[in-house]
Design brief:
Blueprint: E1 4-14, E2 17-27, E3 32-36, H1 43-50, E4 58-63, E5 66-67, H2 73-81, E6 83-86, H3 98-104, H4 112-116, H5 122-134, H6 150-162, E7 168-172, H7 180-197, E8 200-205, H8 208-214, E9 217-222, E10 225-230, H9 232-237
Parallel strand pairs: 3-8, 3-9, 6-7, 7-8
Antiparallel strand pairs: 1-2, 1-4, 4-5, 9-10
Helix pairs in contact: 3-6, 6-7
Bound molecules: adenosine-5'-diphosphate (ADP) (2 copies).
One adenosine-5'-diphosphate is lined by residues 13, 17, 19, 37, 39-45.
Length: 239
């Protein structure tokens, strides 16, 4: 069974802006997918419609067998924890430390009061430390997150997503603000996470060379439509 299925997914922002039209995609567990396309193609809208950060106008999203567009709010909250989100601009809370930002990823599980007070169990703290070690940030844990470099911030973003024990990561231009060296580090971590933890990864990229190097499937989007869906090898042979 597919982990994620999009059926005739469409998003219209206003009369003149149809960001997605009739998108059909089926994603299996463990796939590493790069979504490529020019700026304004609809890549970001596509990822955000999957977890309903943006409400789709039409269509269906099925995740792990559940119809995401028709679940109750509480169930949506639970399912969203299974879909980690990584952003271009990291979306960290600047005044918090690195480890506090990672623990923030647990908020989806807590009542707002417990979350707002920053109360976490010993086990959760140990989990956060372990993830930060895995991502090479052991010596940065108690720094304020705004003291980090972009590449380090993105690794905090990844740890914050992983602490939810997700089945899938949606990464919206995760390396667009990073230099080539930091970009490689982030892509290597995403690859390692996909391979060793079996987590499905969907990553928006505008660098085609990076997409070709890391993904096992490429989805090309242009003007809100899928113009290519296949292997990196086939895309190079088409030219
Ligand atoms: P990409 O990620 O490929 O750059 P986007 O999904 O951000 O593309 O944008 C797709 C289209 O939708 C663009 O024409 C963009 O201007 C438009 N768009 C995106 N977000 C909004 C919004 N919140 N309101 C109106 N139009 C939007
Ligand atoms: P980030 O990666 O930090 O989330 P983005 O630059 O991708 O930031 O987008 C910032 C916000 O602007 C998003 O919520 C997006 O939906 C919105 N946006 C993008 N294009 C448009 C547009 N044409 N009109 C209105 N809002 C837009």
């Amino acid at each position: 069974m597919a982990l994620l299925e999009l059926f005739n997914l469409s998003k219209r922002y206003d009369q003149h802006t149809i960001a997605l039209s009739d998108i059909n995609i089926s994603v299996n567990k463990g796939e590493f997918i790069a979504v490529i396309g020019p700026s304004g193609a609809g890549k970001s809208t596509l990822l955000r419609c999957i977890n309903r950060m943006i409400e789709p106008t039409n269509g269906e999203v099925t995740f792990d067998g559940v119809d995401l567009l028709h679940v109750k709010r509480k169930e949506l909250r639970r399912l969203r924890t299974k879909i980690g989100m990584i952003f271009q601009h990291y979306h960290l809370v600047n005044r918090l430390t690195v480890i506090e930002n990672v623990l923030h990823g647990r908020l989806g599980y807590k009542s707002s009061v417990v979350g707002a007070l920053g109360i976490y169990t010993k086990k959760e703290k140990e989990q956060a430390i372990q993830l930060l070690r895995m991502l090479g940030l052991a010596d940065q844990m108690y720094k304020r997150s705004d003291k980090l470099s972009g590449g380090q911030k993105q690794r905090v973003g990844i740890a914050r997503a992983l602490i939810q024990d997700p089945k899938m990561l949606l990464c919206d231009e995760p390396i667009a603000s990073l230099d080539p060296n930091a970009s490689k580090i982030i892509m290597d971590y995403l690859q390692k996470i996909s391979q060793s933890l079996g987590i499905t990864v969907i990553v928006n990229l505008h660098q085609v060379d990076v997409a070709l190097q890391y993904s096992d499937r490429i989805i090309g989007v242009s003007q809100g439509q899928i113009v290519y869906d296949g292997t990196p090898t086939d895309i190079t042979q088409e030219q």
